[in-house]
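thread from #wetlab-drylab

HS: before we spend reagent money on co-crystallization trials with 5-O-phosphono-beta-D-ribofuranose, can we at least see a predicted complex? here's what I'd submit
DV: go for it
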Amino acid sequence: MNKVGVIMGSKSDLPVMQDAIDILKEFEIKVEVDIVSAHRTPEKLFDYGKHAHTKGFAVIIAGAGGAAHLPGMIASLSPLPVIGVPVKSSNSIDGWDSILSILQMPGGVPVATVALNGAKNAGILAAQIIGTSDPRILDKILQYKEGLKQKVHDSAIGL
Ligand code: RP5
């Protein structure tokens, strides 16, 4: 159980969600990508949320924009941890609509919400969740953090 499901409400979300897919691939974590719309394909959403935990997924990353109901609805159906990515999309007013739709979940149904368009952090968080039970991934996270530190040190050289 080490696969991550990356889903989004529309293919128009893909340019943002690609950051999650890329970083997960960098960590050599298996990713399955799909389009699942809360409003346009509600039956597919229900099926995905009900069965993801039986299909080898460990974490679900769900991105949507505007009236962004996908992450919360998936979290209501699935026992897996759900990371929500608010997307500033064509039907967003300023992005706050997406953020608040995903963030303000009722008690009992958590969605770990990252920043607006923060799909890269969603991917890293999913890898960190998998790393709690997979030493190989944990080691990759440690290396990644070392790389971040090194970049800051390098950027300060010669100032
Ligand atoms: C949301 O509506 C999607 O997640 C997307 O962010 C937004 C716009 O979708 P399209 O009209 O571009 O398909 O449900």
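DV: The CA atoms of residues 9 and 37 lie 4 Å apart.
HS: ok that's useful, forwarding to the group
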